[in-house]
Amino acid sequence: MRIPRPCLVARCVRGLESAVAAEVLESGLGAVTGLGHREVRLRLRSSGPEPIPVPRTADDLFLLAARRPDIGTTKSDLHALAGLAELADTDLLLRLRRTLTQAQDDVPGIDVSASFLGRRTFSRYDAEDIVGAALAERLGVPYHSRRAGAAPPPGRQGWRLTLDGTHAALMLRIGDRPLHRRAYKRRTVPGTLHPPVAAAMAVMAGIRPGHTVLDPCCGAGTLLIEAALAQPGARLRGFDLSPDAVAAARANAAALPIGVDRCDAGRLPLPDASIDRVLSNPPWGTQVHPRGLLADSPSRWWTELRRVLSPDGTVVLLLPTSETLAGAIRHGLTPVHIQGVRVSGAQSFIVRLQPAS
Fold first, then answer.
1. pTM for this one?
2. Each residue's pLDDT tens digit, 11-45
3. 20 to 30 A Cα–Cα from 174, which one of 110, 227, 261, 270?
């Protein structure tokens, strides 16, 4: 079936669907029409010349081009996917994309990225190549296959194919690159946080103008930068024991009023009760391990965090397991919200805590 215009799909990290839907509604981007696995479907409120608000909690944003029943699980079913390219009103889609983003008329080529749920006897590359070849023929442009692992050349128009067991959907990326590839991310370090997850954590923290926000293990600065973009009136401080992390955070946050210094999170140079909000991805995952004072005594993390937090403060953390919360509770912090998310293929938890009354 053809898709009435203009229908959008916001793709996201698993577990952030409700956060993306809330941002879509609050920004006035559109009316939410459905939630699925890692996606929020919406009807755009306006397709006028003004720029549309871009959801920062989403990984990417697409125009829905065509949808049909899922093709099944065997390789012999793949040929049916070519029909999606025939269903898509490509002239309308490209015109909408130009209106929404002022994109260039010239399309040097296309690429397709596919994902599916459940076991199949074909690979994502098999599905991509079937749809990509059909689309390229319709548009009269070259198709870049991802099968060999090479990234698409610059300027290629991005299409997305999903098969969720019920529907097969074809989508056209609105922007020139995925939303999660932030322009500020000039430098990175091991364990750096996925920007849309950081954006969701900043929203969950409820930062207000004048609040002092701390990340005691700031890494490349992603959480502080997303917090600054969400609430420019806040005061932001970051610390990290790694000189490489401090340099990366300063480079990424160069255009923003964020202070970053080298310090051990087990001994913060801050007065008692001086912090309104704490945002952090503590070094308890598989990529980054505790160093300095925290290596010998991990509980110092909670001791220092509780010391600097104001009595009406809020803490939002990304934790690898819910069992980690035992340390928070022992140090007088009460979990008030726990949200499961999948980050880099692993189950994690965004947790909001407040001082026990």
1. 0.93
2. 999 999 999 999 999 999 999 999 999 999 999 88
3. 227
